[in-house]
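Still learning. Any example?
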Amino acid sequence: MTAYTPPTPPFRDPHLPFAKRVDDLLARLTPAEKVSFLHQFAPAVERLGIAAFRTGQEALHGVAWMGPATVFPQAVGLGATWNTDLVRRVGEAVSREVRALRAHDDRVGLNVWSPTVNLLRHPLWGRNEEGYSEDPKLTSAIATAYTHGLRGDHPVYWRTAPVLKHWLAHNNETGRDVTSSSVRPRVLHEYDLRAFRETVRSGAVAGVMPAYNLVNGRPNHLSPHLREQLRAWTDEDLLVCSDAGAPSNLVDTEHYFDTHEEATAAAVLAGVDSFTDHGTDSSKITARLRGTLEQGLLTESDIDTAVRRQLSVRFRLGEFDPRHDPHVGTGEFDTPAHRALAQEAAEQAVVLLKNDGLLPLAHDTRVAVVGLLADECKLDWYSGTLLHRSTPLEGLYERFGAERVEFAEGVDRIRLRTSAGTFLHVPPAPEAPEEARGAEGALDPALLCGRTDLPPLTTDATGTELALVDWGEGVLTLRAPDGRYLSVAEDGYVRASADQPGGWVVQETFRLEPHDNGHLLRHVGTGRPVRVAADGVKVAEGEPEIFELVVTERGEQVVAAVAARADVVLVVAGNDPHINGRETEDRTTLGLPAQQERLLRAARAANPRTALVLVSAYPYAVDVARLPAVLWTAHGGQAAGTALARVLAGDASPAGRLPQTWYAADSDLPDLLDYDVIGARQTYLYFEGTPLFPFGHGLSYASFAYADLSARVEDDSVQVSFTVTNTGDVTADEVVQLYTRAVEPSAVRPRRELVAHRRMTLAPGARTELTCQVPLSAFEFWDVALGRWRLEQGPYDLLVGASSEDVRLRTTVLLDGEPAAPRPVCETGLDAADFDEQSGIAIVDRTKVSGDAVTPVDGGSGELVYRHCDFGDGVTEVTAQVAGEGVVELFLDGGPVPVTLMPGTPGPYDYRTLGAGIVAEGVHDVRVRLRGPVRLAHVGFSG
C-alpha cells in the first residue's frame, strides 16, 4: 500500500500567481486568526504551518536595534553624497546584513521601516538626520536607490520589504501627536506627496508608515490620501503600518474619536493594515478589532483587505517558498566589502564648504585637532552597535602619525562641592564589565534600563574631577575620568555607568541651575534635583543639594595652548545626536552651543590657520568670515574618522553637496509649524534671502569647466546636453546639477527647481558629455483653479551648474502647453482650500473622512484671496457651505461693499449652506474674510 499524501494546498504552490495563493490562504484563516494578523506581532498559525511574523525592522543607515552591525553615515549624510549608485549599494549591503542576522535571530524582521522620505523643510526639525534633502526630486532619487538596494534585483522575490516613513508633511517633534500641518493643495502635490510618489512608482516599495501628526486637521492615520493618492500610484498591494502607539493616540491624545473601536475602524477603512501598538502585547488591538466587528463598524471583508496586503508582502519575501527564495543563505555580515563601502560612503558625504587654500594638508603638517567631537564616533537613535570605530583623531593619527597630531578635547574640568564642604566622588569599579548600550539588541531599545551593578556616587574630601560639556540651552553631560558618563538608573541613584548619552529618555544630561549662591544639579530625564544621601547620591524631590562649581581647568585655555604650537588647527564641533535635536525634541536655534563657540574663538585667536570641521545631524549658522576652511559631514558611521582624514589629506577630493539650505541666521527661518513652503518662502525653491551656503553647494580640490550647452524639445521631454571638463590637477568627482525656472509664470513658482543631477569622476584634463532627458511633467505645477497638473505654455530657463546658486550655463526653451485661464467659478465655485494667498488661515478637516475646509487660526480672523475668478455674463447669488460660528465676508477686487454671512451651527462638522445676493460679471479677484471659529468649505455662484 502507498501512504496517502495530502494534496499541496494552493497557497503552497510556487507555480501559481501570488494573488491566487493569497486568496487561498485567506480563505483558510478563521475570523479570529485574521484579526490577529492586524497587530505588528502576528502570531503563528500552527495548523497551517504558518510562522509568526512581525512588521518593522529599523534599517535607516544599517541594521538598528539588533546589536552589532555595519554602521553607514546618517541618512542626511547619504543624501549629501548625491550618489544614487552608492546609496543603492548601501541599501543592498544593509539588506544582506538583515538576512544574515535573521538567519540566527528570528527577532530580526524582513519588513524594514526605511527609508525616511520626509523632506528637510525646516532645519530645526529634531529628526533632520533621518531625511535625505529639502528637495523632493533629490529625496526621491536617493530613496528610490536605497529601496532598490533593500529590495534586491530578483523579479519575484524581495530580499527585504521597505516601508517609507512618515506619511505625510511631518517636520516637527514639538507636539508631534497633536499638531496639524496646514498643507495647501499646491504644497501637497508639488512638495510633500512628490517624494513619496516618485519613490513608490519606482517599484521597490512595500508600504508606508503614517506619521504621528495631523494634516489639515485630520490624523495621518486616517489620511484620505492613502486611498486617493498612494494606492493609485502602483498595482502592488502596499502595506500601511502604523507608527508606534499612534492608533491609541487617536483617542488618548488627539481626542479625534470617543472610543478606540471607532478610531480603529476608521484607521482600517482609511487604509491602515498593521497596528503597531502596546509593544508585543496584541490583546488590546485585537480586542478593539473584535469590538469593531461586533458593533458593525467593520465587516470581515474590511479585515480581509488588510490581511491580504500583509500576506502579499510575506509572499514576496519568499516566506512560503523557502526552496525557491533566492535570498535564503545569501546574507553577508561585516564583510570586507561592507567595511570598504562604509568608508566610501563616509568619504563621499564630506562637504567642503569653504577653502581659501588651507586644504588639503601637506603630509608633514603639524596638526592640532581640538573640540568636543574630535575623538568621538557618535551614534544616533537608529544606529546599530559599532563593530568598528574611527574618530577624527584616530583617523588623523593613522594618516599623519601620532607624532604630528596633538589633541585637546576642550572640556571644562570641574569638581562639585557640597554644602558640607565635601565633593562628589566617583567610587572605583575595577570589576565592572565593559558594556556598550544596545549591544545585546532589543526590539524596542526604549525599554533598555540603565545599569545598577555599579556603585552610586558618594562624597569625600577631595572628590572626582569631572569633564563638563554644555551641549547648548544649559544641557550638560558630566564624565568621569574613566570615560563613563554620569547616569541615573530606575532606582534613582547617580552612577558613572554609561559609555555614551543615549536612550529614548536620555539619563545622562543635567542642568546647573543658580540657587542660593550656588547651583542645583537637576537631572533632565527625571526633572528631579540631585541630593546627597547616606547611601549615595540620588535624584529625588526634597532637600536638594546646593553645589559650588569649582572649575579646575578651562577648555578654551587648553585649546589655545595646543593651537599655538600647530601648523594647522582643526576644530571639530557639532552635536550629540541624542541631545538637543532628535526624535521627540526639536532644536530652538541654528547657533553652535556657546561652549563650542568659545573653543572656536580661542583656537582662531591662537592660530589664524584654523579650519572648522562640523560633524552634525543638521545645519548650523556660524560666522565663517575669518575661517580659511570649513567642512561639514553628518555623523559618518564606523569609518567616519578615516574618511575625514583622507579628505583632509587630499587622498580623496571632497565632492559632497549640501542636501539642504544652510541659513545665515534664525531670523531667516519661518515658524517650525508653518508648512506652507510657498507662502513662507521656504527652502531653496522659494527662499529670497542670502543663505550662508546654498542648496547643492560643495567645493572640490579640482576645478571644472562647463560648456557646449544645447537643449531641444522632443515629444514628451526636453533633451539637455553639455560638457564638463576637469581643469584641475587631481582626479575628483563633480556633481552636475540641472535646474529649471518658469520665466513668465501666472502663479508663484520656484526660483529654480532641481530636475536632474549626476555625480561623476573625472581625471585631470578629462572631458565628458552629459545628456539629460527631462520629462515635460517636470515643468508642470498644480493649478488650483483646475484642480490638476498643468503645463503652462511659455519660456523656461534651463540652468546648469555646481549648485543652486553656482550656475555655469543657461539657456531658455519655449514649451507648448495650456495658457493661463481664469477660474470657472460659475461652473465649479471655489473650494475654500484652493486659495492663491492667505493670511491667518488654517486648513482643517471638512469631515473626519475626507475633504478640506478653512478657518481662522485660533478662532481669530483671516483672509483668503482667489485670483482671476470668471463670473461670465454675470451672477446674482453667492452661497457658502459653512460650519461653526462667526462671520464670512466676501469682496470683489477689494470693493467697499462686502457680502456678509453669519453662520451659527452647533459643531465644526455641522455644515449649512447660506446664500446672499451679489452682482458680478467678468473676471475679478475674490477676497474672503473670516472672523471667529467658523469653517468655510465651499463658495458657489449662480444666477
